[in-house]
Amino acid sequence: MKEKIPDLKILAFLCDPIKRLYSHIKMDYEDEGKRARYWGAGATVESVWETAESYANTGQPVLAGKNTLLRKLWYGRFHSKLSPWIESFGFDRIHLVDGDNLGK
Length: 104
Fold this sequence. Notes:
Layout: E1 10-14, H1 17-30, H2 32-38, H3 45-58, E2 63-64, E3 67-68, H4 69-75, H5 78-89, E4 94-98
Parallel strand pairs: 1-4
Antiparallel strand pairs: 2-3
């Protein structure tokens, strides 16, 4: 891409990875179909969060059907997603935006 758009400037919106994880869990929980598939029909947000905490404490992946908390945790690993862009364009072309304070 650098060859096509050498002067590209990139905005990267970042947020607290724990807040992002909780929001993702809550979003799945609020969808009744996903809740039943991923966590079981009787799951509460609190029980799902406890499962996430259990994963964090043991370091073992927690499988829940096709979904994994490991995948949801991976979404918050911003450095791994930014590395290819930094390598291609350089850090000076990337502007990091605090997504947690964006609307304030």
